């Protein structure tokens, strides 16, 4: 059994704690500066500590689920105990060089999960540091796949991945909300509208992931000549639907790059 220490039990850290402790291969050790917050995760396969040092001492893998503005100081505080362990971080915008400059020969993996990790349907991107082995990256994937899918990419693409996967659930939630408003306007109940919108998006996403057809081809299959769907698609194009999404991802990625430069 591998011991996974998670420092930080906030929204994302808490989601990862719940997901990882369900896997019997792992024992999860948790520390958060707010002890009451971390204590709520106590139970089978999960040990709560009131010391970050002790939590890390008991971990084979250290997952830093803390905010970008404090992650480097947390790393420095724990440098003596984690210097020979595999470290995974979820902090947006903080570069691998920033971590490796703090501890010599640090085995660091930078990752970016997203909110659907709460229900084991997350998408996490990873990139490896200079001292990480293939076994290290395989272990990191095994740990993070407890919360959904993983994809290993180069660090130069992490800002784009942050904008596309890390932040995109917010765009989808906005879309569901807007579609549901339209449903209510058409006379459906709010509950019915959310159900119809969310299930349609989930099913459509699964069709894309199946990989048999390009998204454009799937769209064309619904757009009958002179039909209802093509009228809706025309309005979406007129109102800049695609352009708005492209701009949103671009500005999000740029913000991530600015954070990287600090």
Indicate the topology:
Layout lengths: L1 E6 L3 H11 L4 E6 L3 H5 L6 E3 L3 H6 L3 E4 L3 H10 L1 H4 L3 E4 L6 H5 L6 E6 L9 E7 L5 H11 L3 E5 L5 H9 L1 H18 L4 H21 L4 H8 L5 H11 L2 H20 L2
Parallel strand pairs: 1-2, 1-4, 2-3, 4-5, 5-6, 7-8
Antiparallel strand pairs: 6-7
Throw out a few tags for this protein.
262 residues; Rossmann fold; ProC C-terminal domain-like fold; 53% helix; 16% strand
Mean of residue pLDDT? 95
Strand content: 15-25%
Q: Based on DSSP secondary structure assignment, what is the total number of beta strands?
A: 8
The biggest sheet, with number of strands, parallel, antiparallel or mixed sense and barrel status, is: 8 strands, mixed
| CATH level 1 class label of the largest domain | Alpha Beta
User: Major sheet: order of its strands?
Assistant: 3-2-1-4-5-6-7-8
Examine the coordinates and then state which fold CATH places here, giving the name of the CATH topology of the largest domain. Answer: Rossmann fold
Helical proportion, percent range: 40-55%
- The CATH fourth-level homologous superfamily of the largest domain: NAD(P)-binding Rossmann-like Domain
Number of domains: 2
**String of helices and strands:** EHEHEHEHHEHEEHEHHHHHH
Uncertain runs with pLDDT below 50, 5 residues or more? none
Termini separation: 38 Å
Structural class: alpha/beta
Q: Any guess at the CATH architecture of the largest domain?
A: 3-Layer(aba) Sandwich
Radius of gyration: 21 Å
Approximate shape: elongated
Number of H- or I-type helical stretches: 13
């Amino acid at each position: 059994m591998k011991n996974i220490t998670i420092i930080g039990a906030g929204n994302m850290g808490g989601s990862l704690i719940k997901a990882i402790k369900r896997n019997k291969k792992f024992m999860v050790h948790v520390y958060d500066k707010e002890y009451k917050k971390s204590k709520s995760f106590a139970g089978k396969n999960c040990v709560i500590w009131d010391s970050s040092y002790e939590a890390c001492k008991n971990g084979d893998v250290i997952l830093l689920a803390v905010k970008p503005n404090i992650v480097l100081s947390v790393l420095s505080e724990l440098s003596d105990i984690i210097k020979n362990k595999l470290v995974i971080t979820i902090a947006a915008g903080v570069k691998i060089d920033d971590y490796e400059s703090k501890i010599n020969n640090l085995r660091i993996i930078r990752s970016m999960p997203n909110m659907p990790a709460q229900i084991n349907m997350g998408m996490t991107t990873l990139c490896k540091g200079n001292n990480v082995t293939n076994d290290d990256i395989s272990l990191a994937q095994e740990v993070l796949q407890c919360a959904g899918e993983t994809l290993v990419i180069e660090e130069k693409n992490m800002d784009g991945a942050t904008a596309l996967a890390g932040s995109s659930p917010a765009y989808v939630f906005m879309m569901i909300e807007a579609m549901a408003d339209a449903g209510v306007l058409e006379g459906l109940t709010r509950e019915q509208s959310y159900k119809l919108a969310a299930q349609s998006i989930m099913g459509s996403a699964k069709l894309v992931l199946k990989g048999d057809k390009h998204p454009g081809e799937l769209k064309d299959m619904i757009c009958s000549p002179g039909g209802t769907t093509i009228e809706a698609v025309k309005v979406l194009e007129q109102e800049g639907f695609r352009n708005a999404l492209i701009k949103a991802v671009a500005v999000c990625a740029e913000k991530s790059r600015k954070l990287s430069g600090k």
